[in-house]
Request: fold
Amino acid sequence: MSDFIAAEDRAILAAHQLDSFEALWALELDAVDEPNTERGGYSTVSRLQLGEHAYYLKRQSNHLTRSLRHPFGEPTFARELRNIEHYRQLGIPALQAAFFAQRRLAGKQCAILLTRALDGWRDLDSWLRDWPSHPAAQRLAIVQACGELARRLHEARQVHGCFYPKHIFLREQADGFQAQLIDLEKTRGLWFGQRDRIKDLEPLLRRAGAWSEAEVSTLLLAYVQTNEQLPAWRQRLDARQRNKEMRR
Reply:
């Protein structure tokens, strides 16, 4: 995959002499969390502030995913960039990439993915931690935004694959909430119809245990857009949740 620089960020990165793999790779920044070492290599995330513009700089070495197209592996960031761009083309609200490049250093596959920081947005996970303290109208607006996001995602024939509260970001506005997705590494096409939809939705409902029955119904109504379908969808989601619990 060739180097990628978003048109909106090219001048900003160039002004700070950070419009190349080498410059971004050499930056000394503190990581915002522990390195991810699940795939044998490592992957780190750091915040990068360039004047008024904020980014998250993700760097990885031999942190690979394998597929039929790449049987020997490719950086997971390469796949995520393709998915970010695919979501953008489909009109699915999601994080935006500013820069991507990959190199082989000392025999290792290394990659950089720079994304725009979601300042002003808050992940659903943090909202859920003190859920009862929020006004009822605000809670319903958040739940509705999540349901609408899920509908847009699945109507575009995409499955997120990790549709969890920590991957849904929300921003309040005059008429409700906007919602968008991050962490698109595992996203894929929606191949199996309702089965895929249920598989994507159920983890969200399972992790959002603070939601009341009425709030879950609000989410599903925003998703299916008809009251007649609510009982059937709730029954299927409950059945999958019971099945997951029995396997633990």
